[in-house]
Task: inverse folding
């Protein structure tokens, strides 16, 4: 009797996965087009409607009638489904891979029951402008979720309107601007301070809102530098926008002092809580003294990332700043839920309507499946996983975790392959490409790279010990390859869907093509 | 869609066999025959040969079809053959008695032969020799081998030098940087005076680091530099005197104003005009006194060590700095430049302790338009 | 005597938290050399630690109970399948093909994020195809990976125009969506002033005289919607564009993508930047949670370099004939260059982009034409039936319409609020009440009719209105 299972293990540990990603070599959809094919039929026109349609079209002003039909592909339904299903197979979602390699993105499990709930007609078929009495259910969800966030953060009022994290940060920057405008100090206070390890959107959104951005670099231990902050504040300071713990996974223990310095200078403090997953139930925005905060529902609160959205962002503020929140706000009068548009000081609309309702529903359901004890367990387990991962990764020769030596980390760690790279000349990105050969993701860092040869890993609470071990084993294997068989790494990926792309075309206006039609034009120009 | 490279490419290799001799045996730098002989007597083992070999191994493993042009024996031939190359050997040397003249000859010859990249193993002295010969007419990359490296233009390690060289030759790296060539005056050094001069800029291949590989066309650093220039000019006042130090970032400011700039020296600009070029301390003090206007200093860190003052811009002396005042010192640098310091602070070594202390602490750095960085300044005297 | 059985005291192991199993936790702690997880939070000062647990509602640990709880809440909603809805005004009820839901429920797409062009090749290709199909619909060569919604698309388009021209003013008609105006006021504040232009009270059209008067060498852009928020079609698009161009300004037009099977794409009458919302293309309304904003331009470097969004381009790989994708001009975005990037970028609405692509592929050229005709026919049928009701005037504006139109009730003696209340009794959601947003239009409501409304539905509406009014 052949013992297949035995072959899959070595020294009691599972061997490396012999992964190969789905590789369909799929044509571009336009190439699949066959004239005349239909993917779906539109409802027939009743005779009376047909008459009015003909009328309406013939009375359309000449310049407005479309002359040539759009050159969309013509495909039958089964072929279409097959094409997109294949493309989905060529994508590694959290449901498919051990996604701890997308550090700072908090790639946790999105529970299926929440997906089911969000797709029910009582959620999916709601129009946002229905009379209030017809949408009491969803308004209740908005309201109750706001109460949950109030408790988690300690902030007084929330808006769930922003479309995702960056839009939430932008909204906070806009509120800071409005606050100073109201006090007649907007011209004077035109600087926002942030740190190099905060998410890039803190700097970018502040600038978009019209501020000058002052960036602080960390001290030698990787903590935000308080002395630098003191050198940065002045009567021009509008506020501080900071992530804590930062993307390195280090919690700033002097955060209260930071806030005090900025408050003393007359500025407001906004808390980017993108990295909240590791501190749920442990510490809050309020006690540290923040005036504003934001959460990413698609990170901390489990809603799915959707290939890059839709996500959802929630902003929380103190009582003083509540009047500036985007319009409308959701209120409860003891009997019913209402949308209050009477907000004269509001910054106005950040996003259409009230927010990404299905995400808010999913986030609510997620919290309700866990409760206070469960949320604390989420944070503690995520942090345990991260420190376990940290220990195991540091056992790999050539990798280090810069800063805060010997200290624990919170939600994620930014590692450095500097030592291996200096020895071998192989970049962190190349290690990332080889990681793809094992069905895993790998992310370096936001730019600019302060930590050399970086890799940022975040296990969250969703992955098991065995998952983490698998990831580490792959990293160790590749580190070994880099030193002994670098070619395998330098020519990776081998088992992914496609091979090394040539990026030259993507930066050259004469060659880049964002659409198939642009591409066709440029190929034909070339061949002439 | 991209053009295929016309192979085979040609790599010029220069090894300075004496670079890095002094460090291990407690001597600073190793230029000058006397020092070299002393070092060898003390049992020093040359660093550059094996570092050059390490870099070449990397190149070899990446590119099969490559022509190497090098000088005889210990100036490159040995290392090239040792790695399995069959180099074209040109020039003539006296084994065991090579000097900077040989480096210069080699560089000139390789330039004439049209090598695609000049790879050298050496230190600041070697860089200076090469720069004096070829200037910025060709691409040059340094393999770190000496003790002191103030110049930029060196890779982080021999292995990295090999990888960057290989990628450049394969056409996968198309960005470049102007790298400061700096050299310490050896004689002054032995008298206990540390003084570095900025000689110019070598053109060195630079790899923009993004997941998709190298970026092409305009460098992002250039965009940042342009934004810095815009920001500075936006705030310039007609009546102010601007003392502008050397550097490519400061040069962008004068370029944008349509003015010429002394590449390795200090110029004074006012009212949109260059009123004095390549000034020394005396001239600076004279202008400041005479003009009786607010004077500001615009500087950028020079060289790989991040010196704000004291390396390459000593004309801006402690006296000048004190006259101008710390609040009128404007530092410009791109985020990329700051990141290249890997967390090390800016350094100052004006020659006067009190001035160094005054400058230490934190300083605002203009890093873009409406963008600043707060960065640490530390005492850089040894 | 019966012995009472006590159920064992349970430590909760959470299904979503694999390492909440106590033995695993302990093993991991041991390996890390910690005695408890609390040690990991040493950097958090005691003073900032929460004492005790948060005061949150009691959870539903079993999936069964959780589902029941949430369903119980949302069952209080009345949705647009049980009620007949004529609401539009920024969110529209179109048919969502089952295939659209099928594809965006694929968990690979649903749970992916920001992998590389290798491990997420499918995502890149799906988004490239979406952009390509939108490109055909709009007759333009550059389309972004979508942003949050049309509000953001408009605001960003205006700032793009400001950056390109170096100017600081945008002109728009007073008829544009009030939400868009509110967003633009906030978002464009640091860079751009807004000047509102008059409109013809009879036709709704942007007043060209007002435009001529207001446009100057400081105008970065002229923006208008077609169809308008108020439903009418702007027929002087080419004059507006010409005027804009004559002064060196950029012409931005907001469109309804589902109209482009029958209506001409704005580039044909001179638009430089075209934007809009993808929600009509295969995305459920979701209480306003299903929006995505597209921005399209010509393939010119000046425009491409100003996009804040990601742009996915096609390229070769090391294997001949293999398609690869990647970011075009990545250094533009704030991911690459922090605050020097153009505005900012983050998680937006990629899944809806993929969905819209699926929708357009399903429909094809014929489907888009047919659906456009169907919508035109049904809307005009509704208008003709409703206009026969005594005291009711529709459409309020004399030009053509697409799917939305204003019904005016001034001569009925009833307010829109009263009428909508009455319609509720017929299980009908009447059109959006415009009396607050556009008081100059009197007692008006914005009605939306799409391909989902049968003739019977429209007759039912007309009858219900008749009953409500007389």
Result:
């Amino acid at each position: 009797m052949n013992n297949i299972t035995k072959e899959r293990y070595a020294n009691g540990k599972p061997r490396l996965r012999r992964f190969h990603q789905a590789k369909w070599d799929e044509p571009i959809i336009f190439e699949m087009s066959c004239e005349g094919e239909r993917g779906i039929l539109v409802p027939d026109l009743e005779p009376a409607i047909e008459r009015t349609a003909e009328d309406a079209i013939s009375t359309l002003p000449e310049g407005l009638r479309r002359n040539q039909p759009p050159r969309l592909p013509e495909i039958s339904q089964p072929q279409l489904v097959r094409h997109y299903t294949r493309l989905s197979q060529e994508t590694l979602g959290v449901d498919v891979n051990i996604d701890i390699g997308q550090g700072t993105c908090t790639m946790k499990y999105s529970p299926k029951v929440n997906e089911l709930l969000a797709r029910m007609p009582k959620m999916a078929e709601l129009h946002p402008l229905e009379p209030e009495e017809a949408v009491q259910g969803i308004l209740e969800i908005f309201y109750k979720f706001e109460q949950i966030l109030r408790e988690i953060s300690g902030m007084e009022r929330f808006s769930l309107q922003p479309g995702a994290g960056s839009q939430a940060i932008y909204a906070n920057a806009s509120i800071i601007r409005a606050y100073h405008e109201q006090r007649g100090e907007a011209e004077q206070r035109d600087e926002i301070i942030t740190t190099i390890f905060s998410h890039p959107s803190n700097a970018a959104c502040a600038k978009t809102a019209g501020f000058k951005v002052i960036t602080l670099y960390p001290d030698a231990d990787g903590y935000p530098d308080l002395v630098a902050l003191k050198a940065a504040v002045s009567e021009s300071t509008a506020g501080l926008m900071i992530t804590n713990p930062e993307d390195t996974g280090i919690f700033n223990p002097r955060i209260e002092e930071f806030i005090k310095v900025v408050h003393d200078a007359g500025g407001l403090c906004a808390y980017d809580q993108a990295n909240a997953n590791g501190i749920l139930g442990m510490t809050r925005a309020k006690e540290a003294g923040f005036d504003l905060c934001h959460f990413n529902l698609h990170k901390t609160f489990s809603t799915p990332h959707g290939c890059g959205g839709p996500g959802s962002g929630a902003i929380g503020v103190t009582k003083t700043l509540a009047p500036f929140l985007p319009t409308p706000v959701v209120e409860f009068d003891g009997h019913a839920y209402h949308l209050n548009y009477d907000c004269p000081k509001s910054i106005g609309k950040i996003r259409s309507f009230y927010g990404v309702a299905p995400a808010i529903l999913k986030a609510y359901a997620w919290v309700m499946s866990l409760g206070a004890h469960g949320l604390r367990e989420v944070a503690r387990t995520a942090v345990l996983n991260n420190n376990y991962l940290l220990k195991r990764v540091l056992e790999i020769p050539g990798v280090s975790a810069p800063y805060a030596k010997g200290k624990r980390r919170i939600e994620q760690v930014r590692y450095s392959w500097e030592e291996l790279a200096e020895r071998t000349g192989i970049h962190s990105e190349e290690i990332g490409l080889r990681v793809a050969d094992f069905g895993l993701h790998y992310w370096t860092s936001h730019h600019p790279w302060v930590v050399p040869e970086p890799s940022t890993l975040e296990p969250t609470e969703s992955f098991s010990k065995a998952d983490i071990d698998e990831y580490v084993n792959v990293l160790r294997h590749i580190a070994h390859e880099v030193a002994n068989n670098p070619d395998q790494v330098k020519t990776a990926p081998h088992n992914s869907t496609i091979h090394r792309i040539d990026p030259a075309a993507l930066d050259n206006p004469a060659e880049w093509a964002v659409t198939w039609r642009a591409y066709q034009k440029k190929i034909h120009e070339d061949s002439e | 869609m991209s053009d295929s490279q016309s192979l085979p490419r040609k790599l010029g290799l220069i090894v300075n066999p004496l670079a890095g001799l002094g460090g291990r045996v407690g001597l600073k730098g190793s230029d000058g025959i006397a020092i070299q002989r002393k070092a060898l007597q003390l049992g020093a083992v040359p660093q550059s040969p094996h570092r050059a070999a390490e870099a070449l191994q990397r190149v070899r493993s990446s590119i099969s079809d490559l022509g190497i042009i090098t000088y005889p024996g210990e100036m490159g031939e040995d290392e090239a053959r040792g790695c399995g190359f069959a180099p074209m050997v040109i020039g003539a040397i006296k084994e065991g008695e090579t000097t900077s003249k040989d480096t210069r000859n080699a560089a000139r010859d390789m330039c004439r032969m049209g090598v695609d990249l000049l790879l050298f193993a050496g230190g600041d002295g070697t860089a200076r020799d090469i720069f004096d010969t070829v200037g910025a007419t060709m691409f040059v990359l340094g393999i770190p081998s000496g003790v002191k490296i103030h110049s930029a233009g060196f890779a982080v390690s021999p292995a990295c030098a090999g990888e960057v060289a290989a990628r450049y030759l394969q056409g996968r790296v198309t960005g470049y940087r102007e790298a400061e060539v700096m050299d310490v005056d050896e004689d002054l050094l032995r008298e206990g005076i540390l003084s570095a001069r900025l000689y110019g800029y070598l053109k060195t291949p630079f790899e923009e680091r993004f997941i998709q590989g190298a970026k092409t066309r305009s460098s992002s650093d250039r965009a940042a530099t342009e934004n810095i220039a815009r920001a500075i000019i936006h705030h310039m006042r007609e009546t102010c005197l601007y003392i502008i130090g050397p550097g490519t970032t400061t040069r962008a400011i004068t370029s944008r104003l349509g003015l010429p700039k002394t590449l390795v020296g200090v110029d004074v600009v006012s009212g949109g005009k260059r009123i004095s070029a390549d000034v020394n301390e005396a001239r600076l003090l004279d202008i400041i006194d005479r003009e009786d206007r607010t004077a500001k200093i615009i500087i950028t860190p020079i060289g790989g060590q991040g010196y704000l003052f004291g390396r390459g811009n000593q004309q801006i002396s402690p006296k000048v700095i004190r006259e101008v005042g710390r609040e009128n010192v404007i530092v410009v640098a791109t985020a990329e430049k700051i990141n290249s310091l890997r967390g090390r602070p800016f350094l100052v070594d004006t020659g006067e302790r009190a001035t160094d202390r005054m400058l230490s602490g934190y300083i605002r750095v203009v890093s873009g338009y409406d963008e600043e960085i707060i960065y640490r300044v530390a005492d850089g005297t040894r | 005597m019966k012995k009472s059985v006590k159920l064992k005291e349970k430590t909760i192991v959470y299904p979503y938290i694999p390492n909440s199993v106590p033995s695993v936790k302990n093993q991991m702690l041991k390996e890390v050399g910690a005695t408890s997880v609390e040690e990991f939070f040493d950097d958090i000062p005691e003073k900032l630690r929460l004492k005790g647990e948060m005061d949150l509602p009691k959870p539903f640990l079993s999936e069964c109970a959780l589902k029941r709880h949430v369903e119980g809440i949302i069952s209080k909603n009345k949705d647009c399948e049980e009620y007949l809805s004529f609401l539009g005004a920024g969110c529209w009820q179109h048919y969502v093909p089952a295939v659209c839901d099928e594809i965006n429920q694929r968990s690979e797409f649903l749970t992916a994020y920001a992998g590389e062009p290798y491990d997420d090749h499918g995502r890149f290709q799906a988004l490239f195809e979406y952009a390509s199909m939108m490109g055909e619909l709009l007759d333009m060569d550059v389309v972004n990976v979508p942003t949050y919604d049309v509000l953001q698309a408009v605001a960003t388009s205006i700032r793009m125009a400001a950056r390109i021209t170096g100017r600081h003013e945008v002109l728009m008609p007073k008829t544009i969506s009030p939400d868009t105006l509110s967003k633009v006021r906030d978002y464009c504040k640091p860079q751009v002033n807004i000047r509102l232009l008059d409109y013809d009270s009879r036709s709704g059209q942007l007043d060209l005289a007002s435009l001529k008067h207001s446009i100057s060498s400081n105008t970065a852009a002229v923006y208008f919607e077609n169809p308008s928020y108020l439903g009418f079609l702007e027929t002087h698009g080419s004059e507006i564009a010409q005027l804009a161009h004559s002064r060196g300004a950029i012409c931005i037009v907001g469109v309804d993508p589902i109209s482009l099977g029958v209506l001409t794409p704005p580039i044909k009458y001179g638009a430089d930047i075209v934007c809009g919302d993808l929600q009509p293309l295969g995305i459920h309304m979701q209480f306003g949670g299903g929006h995505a904003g597209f921005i399209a331009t010509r393939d010119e470097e000046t425009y491409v370099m100003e996009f804040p969004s990601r742009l996915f381009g096609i390229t070769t790989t090391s294997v001949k004939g293999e398609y690869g994708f990647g970011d075009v001009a990545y250094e533009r975005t704030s991911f690459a260059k922090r605050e020097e990037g153009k505005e900012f970028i983050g998680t937006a609405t990629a899944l809806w982009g993929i969905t819209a692509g699926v929708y357009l592929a399903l429909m094809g050229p014929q489907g888009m034409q047919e659906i456009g005709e169907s919508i035109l026919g049904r809307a005009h049928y509704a208008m003709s039936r409703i206009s026969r009701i005594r005291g009711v005037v529709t459409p309020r504006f004399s030009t053509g319409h697409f799917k939305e139109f204003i019904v005016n009730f001034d001569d009925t003696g009833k307010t829109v609020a009263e009428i909508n209340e009455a319609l509720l009794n017929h299980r009908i959601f009447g059109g959006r009440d415009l009396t607050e947003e556009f008081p100059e239009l009197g007692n008006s409501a914005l009605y939306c009719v799409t391909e989902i409304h049968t003739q019977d539905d429209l007759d039912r509406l007309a009858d219900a209105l008749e009953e409500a009014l007389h």
